[in-house]
Amino acid sequence: MAGLNQTPKGNRIFIGIFGKRNAGKSSFINRLTKQDIALVSNIAGTTTDPVYKAMEILPLGPVMIIDTAGIDDVGDLGKLRIGKTKEVMSKTDVAVILLEAGQPVSDFERSLLKDFKELGTQVIFAVNKVDEKTLDPKQINQISEEIGLPVFPISAKTGEGFDELREELIKVAPRAFEDIPFLRDLVNPGDVVLFCVPIDTAAPKGRLILPQVQAIRDCLDARAVAMVAKVDEIQNQLDNLKVPPALVVTDSQVFKEVNAIVPESIRLTSFSILMARQKGNLDELVNGAEAIESLRPGDKVLIAEACTHQCQADDIGRVKIPRWLKQKVGGDLDIEWYTGDSFPSDLSGYKLVIHCGACMINRRAMLYRQKVSKEYSLPMVNYGVAIAYLHGILGRVLSPFHK
């Protein structure tokens, strides 16, 4: 089982299970995964918050199954649970909507279908518990015509219909995350890639952070040669190489130092910018950098961090970027921070969003955050892009992506 959890959460296909209370969502997950991983009860509302379970479904590979609270929950606590469920919708790659056999399609299911259509999410609609109430083909066809989608009659209890549903899931799921290159399309077999990896108080003891690991692995997959050094060793590594590296990838925090060391003839970028290209729309994030120029003291800026790491003395999002922004605009900004899986739905009043590298969320979630910002005509920029802009080297660090 350890192998199932080795793929990072943000690199998995997210499959969300949605529907009314007691539609059989937890039983469905247990049948789909062939494990008793979700609590099953005849009492409506047993699942109170989204439950994430890392699994592997062949041939899809690593997936994240999400068991959500009933979308028709009631009361003040129910509203909070529904809010959590709606947050899950923004990161769901494939949504499975369950309707209990014998129940009509209600406004709840129609609302889900409408929301997922607007999000561009693939939807599988299933009628569960057909072992308890048999539906004839005519009834299934009526539901299908009503919602405009194929309908899969299933029984989570007996397994009826699951082979067909699983085939549909495999067919509509997005391509594997690993098919989106990190850097392997930027180098050729035999090329040397030099990685600058600062080791400071924020670096996890005994290991590298996720973007660094992904970059090195993608380099090896490209049959290129990976070299890793700290900032004060970069010059020695360059001097010792008979042929200059095809690419230097650095932590964005030391852009200024590494830019001064690495000759202009050598391509340079950062882990954060590579991550932005893989997880989101890099062109839009680059366009967002122009908004830094128009910032004035007192303007409201949102810094979004997709993880909840412990803040360090010279933290990149809490200390360094605010300090560089202050130097740029000539005064203090009204900076607010938002951390974790969720993202504010109301972005009114902000002049700019500065987003982290997004290594802890999936591509759909990052694209959703960019979409929400666009709806508010609010520029968004990535950490690495913002830092490069503030140091006057944005053009250089984007040059590796220009054909």
UniProtKB/TrEMBL annotation:
GO terms for biological process: tRNA methylation; tRNA wobble uridine modification. Gene3D superfamilies: 3.40.50.11410, 3.40.50.11420, P-loop containing nucleotide triphosphate hydrolases. InterPro entries: FeFe-hyd_GTPase_HydF, GTP-bd, HydF_dimer, HydF_tetramer, P-loop_NTPase, Small_GTP-bd. GO terms for molecular function: GTP binding. Residues 15-129 form the G domain. One of its GO terms (cellular component) is cytoplasm. Residues 284-400 form the Hydrogen maturase F tetramerization domain. It comes from the Bacteria. Residues 183-280 form the Hydrogen maturase F dimerization domain. CDD domains: Era_like (cd00880). PANTHER family: TRANSLATION INITIATION FACTOR IF-2 (PTHR42714:SF6), TRNA MODIFICATION GTPASE GTPBP3 (PTHR42714). NCBIfam families: GTP_HydF, small_GTP. This is [FeFe] hydrogenase H-cluster maturation GTPase HydF. It comes from Turicimonas muris.
